[in-house]
Amino acid sequence: MKDYFLSIILFAERHDRAIIALILVMVMFAGTVYSIHLGDRLRFADEIEYNLLANNLVKEHQFRLGWDEPTACRAPGLPFAMAPMVWFGAGIVHLRILNFLFFAISIFLTYRIVKRQSSRFSGVLAAVIVLCYPVLFYTAGTFYPETLASTLFLMVVYLLLGSEISAWRFLVTGLIAGFLVLASPLFAPILVILAIWYWISKKPRKLIGPLLFGLGIFLVVGAWTVRNYSVFDSFVFISTRSGYTLRIGNNADTTPSSCANDIAYMQEATELAKTMSEPQIDKYFKAKAVEYILNNKAQSAKMYFLKFLNYFNYRNELSTKSESSTLRDLIMLFTYGPLLLLLIIRLILSKRYNLLSMEKLFVLLYVSHAMLTAVFLTRIRYRVSFDFLIIIIVAIFINSVLRDWLQRNSHRLNTAQ
Fold first, then answer.
1. Dmax of the chain from CA atoms?
2. Which one of 93, 113, 241, 270 has the lowest number of neighbouring Cβ atoms within 10 Å?
3. pLDDT by residue (tens digit) across 71-112?
4. What residues contact 26, with CB distance under 8 A and at least 6 apart?
């Protein structure tokens, strides 16, 4: 048994690049086949809107839905990423393949982060674990921003975790981080936590790097904020969706695992649009949500805690019932469940296997994101970008346990290092 595990470690250490290349080819091939299988069918209402926004950016040079007025109803990151492909004539199938390219890049970045922090074997192991976590593949087959956000987030993490970062690298990282916020606005507070961690742990001697990082974010987010102000004559941070999301996550019918009455609130938004602007509707929904919370403090606190727990759930109640499946729920249970269990074991054994500074950061980011999304509502797809962090921790942990076990029983492991 020991020889078997040792041979696997040795093989992965010696052929890590070839294994990763094979994994990436497999992902792109499977993603292409899956995209062709799905064809031009868009399964969720959100997908239709993102596709319309990308097409109108190219054809009408406007960020809007259909023939309506310019909008900020969605975060613009994904439509911006899709637009160049649309300009070249890409259809829905091609755009899905683009999403799988983002997914493949995420796998490569996961491998690189783990390899740099641990070993080649654990880097390969992390990539294999990603393959064994099918919700990431499924998400890549949708026009949702989470796959793009995962790629951008891992890019930022990879660049900031480097030993020495040049001024230009700080600026580029900031620009990527800014685009990440455009793809998923809830990453803004996460980036603040990441920046604080960098300042405390790295203790940069010069301010120019962190300032350039902040400048990069400001340039990207600021440009879109100026656009929104010019369109609405009102300050809008990224999109006007947050009020609606806050409202459906905070009302008398909300449950921890479903956004009750989302269709009713969507219809209400349509009625309000006849007399109110998008920012006004956004403020209206926020005010209603805050009013409900203040008038129902105990119930809201209880629901917040339950939504926080639901962040770690293996299933959601989907509004699109045709996409619900007992089989999918079981797959999530037997893939996410072990990851969460191994994370808990890793934390319990932190005295025996000391937590790396990076691991502490990732746990902090994971829990912080759970706390942030619980303010609104928690969904598996909102979490998937952060599941990469858990996969990284688990891969490093398994590597440490295996090597510790082998070292206690054999002196042959030094040939693998």
1. 76
2. 270
3. 999 999 999 999 999 999 999 999 999 999 999 999 999 999
4. 131
CA 198/CA 158 separation, integer angstroms:
12
- For residue 10, what are its two tokens? 């040795």
Residues of the domain holding 214: 2-416
31: Cβ contacts below 8 Å, ≥ 6 apart: 96, 97, 99, 100, 101, 103, 104, 137, 140, 141
Total structural domains within the chain: 1
Distances (CA, A) of 304 to 311, 384, 410: 11, 20, 50
Q: Which two tokens stand for residue 86?
A: 């649309």
Question: Does residue 74 sit in helix, strand or coil?
Answer: coil
Closest CA to 246 of 385, 380, 372, 79: 372
Asked if residues 30 and 62 have their Cβ atoms less than 8 Å apart, the reply is no
Q: Which residues pair with 80 in a beta bridge?
A: none
Count of other CB atoms within 10 angstroms of residue 68: 12
Continuous H helices in 296-325 = 297-310
* Contact call for residues 295 and 253 (beta carbons, < 8 A): no
φ and ψ at 190, to 5 degrees? Answer: -65, -40
- Quick one: tokens of 293? 């919370």
Q: Of the candidates 323, 225, 321, which has an alpha carbon nearest to the alpha carbon of residue 279?
A: 225
Classify 123 as helix, strand or coil: helix
Q: Is the CB of residue 112 less than 8 Å from the CB of residue 119?
A: no
Could you report the per-residue pLDDT of 219-254, keeping only the tens digit for each? 999 999 999 999 999 999 999 999 999 999 999 888
Dump pLDDT digits (tens) for 354-374: 999 999 999 999 999 999 999
Nearest to 408 by CA among 15, 76, 6: 6
Distance between start and end Cα atoms, the chain: 20
pTM recorded for the entire structure: 0.93
How many whole angstroms separate alpha carbon 25 and alpha carbon 22? 5
